[in-house]
């Protein structure tokens, strides 16, 4: 068996040093230097230097070493123990400060990571703002080009009689200083304001079409254009207003193509029946031209207008057939023409104008009074 005995395990040494450290004032069994404190406590009682608790400097350590006394063998052990305690206290203070600094460093690293995340977020925000700005600039450029094209395509309109009378009746109108423009009202027309208003009104082209906008359009649109608005499908909601306007223009052009085709192919005979194609607008115009009051057909459904239009067509055809059946008057002689021209307002007997017809017994209706 060796003289130095069995080597103790780390657990046994920890329990032994912990028990020894409990008897030392100011030391805990969980302190990482509790084992060293237990060994030094065997040589000499624990000595504390309060000056080294807060900070450790070479001058403070020098003052503490000078206070150690070395006399005799026992005193040497005591002095060695005191020196050991001195350096152990200094080492513990440095170790504690090191732990505190490590915690502060970890905290600073966390703050740096948070700042880096905020920097990335701000960078993405700036990039998205730049992209959005480029898109808006492209839209404004396209809008400006569109306004310029529309302005260049505008053709001078022939002024109506109402506009001419309104212009001539102006008190301040001077034909020598007149610039040749007509206004819809009595106010002077300002082209710069017109361009600004046009640009402002073209702004909603990029806005989505909502149910409220569609209802307002249907309510305020003329009667002959409501069919085109009602024909818009439900998926059109949510699309830009400009696309919907183009779709309405296509629908109106398609309606005109159908009307032109109906005029070219008026009647198609299939099995002895004829098919007549007519638009609601055409029926409306025909009825108004025939003398029908606007109140009678305004807001009426299409079947009602179709029935009235068919009745009107029948009356017109009957009138044309009746006019074709009426006999034409025989030609007048030159003498009779002179008599007629000389006395247009004078009533002439029928027997004088048409002696041959009267002799044969054929009666001619007299002139209407």
Automatic annotation (TrEMBL):
Region (Disordered): 316-369
Domain of life of the native organism: Eukaryota
One GO CC annotation: Golgi apparatus
Alphabetical GO biological process terms: response to virus
InterPro entries: Fv1_restriction_factor (IPR053270)
Composition-biased stretches (Basic and acidic residues): 316-326, 334-344
Protein name: Uncharacterized protein
Taxonomic source organism: Pleurodeles waltl
